[in-house]
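Researcher: Last one for today. Full complex below.
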Amino acid sequence: MVTESAVWDALREVEDPEIPVISVVDLGVVREVKVEDGHVHVEFTPTFLGCPALEVMRAQMAERIRALGAEPEVEVILDDSWSTDRITPEGREKLRRAGFAPPTPREVTAPKLVQLQSDAFRCPYCGSSETRLENIFGPTPCRSLRYCESCRQPFEQFKTI
Amino acid sequence: MSARAEQLLEIADDELILGWRDSEWTGIAPFLEEDVAFSSISQNEVGHARALYEIAARDLGTTADELAFDRQPEEYRSATLVELRRMDWAITIARHVLYEAADEIRLQALKDSDDDEVAGLAAKMDREEAYHRMHALMWEERLRDEPRFQAALDELWPAAVAMLPEELRPQLAERVGRELPADLSGVERGTHSEEWPALWEEMTEVRRSAPGAAW
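Model: Here's the assembly. Have a good evening.
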């Protein structure tokens, strides 16, 4: 008999294919796990709606659940319930160590250009806040590009969503 | 068709086609940062279209892919603004600025609606669109004094107004500081631009060559 905690443990091994240092659980995209009569229902909240990693994550979650001997049902929730605030403290630390600056907390109003252009973002390599915005957009929808004036290292900053 | 499905299709068609047009800059934007920016914006817009089509498809008993690619050209509800193909940077940025302004007003109305499913999706889309708006604002500040950019805004203004339902148009006029045009003939939703047939041909080519194929 599969338990909910066994499912959570299995999902902790599913990596984000675009940022393999972090799992779907660290990323906070698994909203709920329910087990009933051998069926596992997972509520999955996409990060960015156009993110191509979503399909891969969804398929891998289903595969892991099947490996536990249960029938998976991964439901995609298309509402505003995922936020970068849902990335776990461990997840943030893993991101930082991999050279991605973790997102700043979500505020009531949407982030503004002046905030992004400010230097209130820390370099994940040297910790300096002498950084500047290079591009609002980056290699994936969830990241911006910044440059550290102190250690002269470009880095990727997670967008706040 | 229900008013809800109709509204979802209008917005989904706008986002899909704008995503398509913006992606035409991939590889050839004036500089690398903009290549990345427009590619990323396109990816988001197509993602929004997909989510909207999925909800509409459930209401209509079909699939998102069928809605996106299997309709006849006259069945699409896209605004003429997103169909235009002008590989000109001033016009591209003017469209971006006007589209994002109109889209924000439209999303706010959806967020305020009593339809929880649509309001929830609109709230999510709006979080992503905030970054598109920042990008548009950055360019607007940069090009503000350029006559070519101003001429592009003048040219596209009627089509931008026609993107919105009538009751939301005054908000857009106020937001961008322009008068509502007296005549919107040729740009109202339901009419299509000259560029539309060629775009439809290209966009649906793969599906038409292998009907029902999945990949």
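The domain at 3-177+195-209 of chain B is CATH 1.20.1260.10 (Ferritin). The mean pLDDT of chain B is 96.
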